[in-house]
Specification:
The chain is an alpha/beta fold. Helix content is 14%, strand content 27%. The radius of gyration is 18 Å and the shape is globular. It comes from Mediterraneibacter faecis. This is Transferase.
């Protein structure tokens, strides 16, 4: 019997995840939910839509699981807040691992979304609520914490540690045996060859750390 599941988020991302879960996973999406302030209708994508503040009454966590369909805004903090709140409500948060993924990981938490042709190499560990987009490479024995976002074709080399709430842009690369500290932002095409500081920002060209700039201040992460 398929697990019955509610998606948090009435967005195109939520629709996409419904498609993936229903096509590739043993999951039936039965409803959407969103904070009451953003609930525009009692239906979405042909399914019921309910206020998140009341979701456990209509879809109790003893009978339903949840998917968190939120992206990287505010350095993934919004997704983190909703993940943690859903866990307090008692929900199991579903993982999605596309069947094309090469998965040699030895540990994985909850709420991860891992899309086409990602490589999780030998000995990798993945925490909670990470989003890893198409073609990304998590190299051997690397450790990824919680609430991180890997854009398309981002790469971390072997034995790298990515802590929490980091963002890696399209085609970004991190040298092996390095550590990305909390809320590090690596821009599209940047190459990081050093350990980072919390909230640091790396951009292409010289790929240097921008002094006096925090990742949470960048416009596209707000």
């Amino acid at each position: 019997m398929k697990r019955k599941c509610v998606i948090f988020g009435t967005t195109d991302f939520g629709k996409m995840l419904r498609y993936y879960f229903e096509k590739y996973a043993d999951v039936q999406i039965v409803a959407y939910t969103v904070d009451k302030a953003y609930l525009e209708s009692d239906s979405y994508d042909g399914l019921p839509a309910v206020a998140y503040e009341e979701v456990e009454k209509a879809y109790p966590p003893t009978e339903y699981t949840m998917v968190i369909a939120l992206g990287y805004k505010k350095m993934n903090q919004i997704r983190q807040q909703k993940f943690e709140d859903a866990k307090r409500k008692g929900y199991r948060i579903e993982n999605f691992v596309h069947p094309s993924v090469v998965d040699e990981s030895v540990a994985m938490g909850e709420g991860n979304i891992i899309l086409e042709h990602v490589t999780l190499a030998y000995g990798t560990k993945i925490g909670n609520s990470n989003i890893i987009w198409n073609g990304s490479q998590i190299s051997h024995e690397s450790q990824v914490g919680d609430y991180n976002f890997f854009s398309v074709d981002s790469v971390i080399a072997g034995k790298t540690v990515v802590k929490n709430n980091c963002f890696l842009g399209i085609n970004s690369t991190v040298l092996g045996n390095r550590t990305l500290e909390y809320a590090t932002l690596v821009g599209a095409g940047a190459f990081v060859k050093e350990n980072t500081e919390p909230y640091s920002v790396y951009v292409p060209a010289r790929s240097i750390c921008l002094e006096n700039k925090k990742s949470t201040e960048m416009a596209y992460t707000r």
